[in-house]
Amino acid sequence: MSNGSLTGIYIYPVKSCGSISVSEIHGNQSGLEGDRQWVFLGGGDNVLTQRDYASMALIQPTLLNENGCKLQLEAPNMPPIKVEHRENKDQFCEIDLWDNDRSGFDQGDEIAEWISEYLKTEARLLYTKVDHTQDARYVDCSPLLIISEESLNQLNTQVDEPVRMSRFRPSLVVKGLGEYVEDKAFALTIGHVELSAMKLCGRCVMINIDQEQGVLTGSEPLRTLSKYRKEGSKVMFGRYFECASDFNLKLDMPVSVEI
Q1: Do 21 and 10 form a contact (C-beta atoms < 8 A)?
Q2: Between 193 and which of 48, 57, 158, 247 could a Cys-Cys bridge form, CB atoms 3.0 to 4.6 Å apart?
């Protein structure tokens, strides 16, 4: 099946914080360039996410390349702060991300104090140096999450208040292939880039957080999805994919699906 197109490309430089929409991007086996190379670590060495701090959605990252700084963060009622990129061996640490081993470099006290003040909890910022391996970034399962516009449109016919695609934090959005085509796909080809399908994405309470307001809005859309998108104990929406080589993507590229 063809006649689809790529309509959205999103990266999330800091895990569980705001997104950046781009028109084109480079990627490899580890995922999209600039995606989830930073993560907040709590006082008990636990990874912080919107599941516990919905206001993380309002922390907006900007990628930089100036004077040793690679990242700027902005948040409501906080001054913008630039992060001086550090890869010091004495600041290297190992962390556990949902039972997956990850590592990172602590980015220092100044940014830690900024995050802690905003979230009102002890927190530090870690950075990972990305290689070509699939588990190089701070991702839950796989580097690429794909959702079709038709899938969201179908969901919005079932809920009282339509929700935006941002609730589901996809990497790539496609259009023109039909609702839930991602569920059935063996592979998706975008331009000349072939992406292999992995498992469906099990959703949690995070999809009930309004990403533009940074607040939990109630039980939707998770409640509605649980009525007809449940497999075992998990509610599915979107699917993970992977790519075996380096690639380049650009908005409006043609998309075809192999089922």
Answers
A1: yes
A2: 247
What is the distance between the alpha carbons of residues 160 and 78, in angstroms, rounded to a whole number? 35
Of the candidates 183, 165, 137, the one whose C-alpha atom is nearest the C-alpha of residue 12 is: 137
Residue indicated by tokens 């480079």: 26
Same domain (yes/no): 150, 252: yes
| Cα pseudo-dihedral 46, 49, 55, 58, rounded to 10 | 120
What pLDDT, on the 0 to 100 scale, is given for residue 129?
A: 81
The single-letter code of the amino acid at 180 is Y
Considering the domain architecture, whether residues 151 and 243 belong to the same structural domain is answered as yes
Quick one: 122 and 195 in the same domain? Answer: no
Bridge partner residues of 28 (DSSP): 31
Cβ atoms < 10 Å from Cβ of 50 = 22
Distance CA 203, CA 239 (A): 11
* pLDDT score at 254: 97
Q: Which residue has the higher pLDDT, 193 or 84?
A: 193
* Same domain flag for 219 and 146: yes
Q: How many domains does the chain have?
A: 2
Burial 145-168, CB ≥16 within 10 A → b, else e:
bbbbbbbbeebeeeeeeebebbbb
Element (H, E) at 184: helix 181-184
Specify the range with the lowest mean pLDDT, choosing from 45-49, 51-55, 166-170, 222-226: 45-49
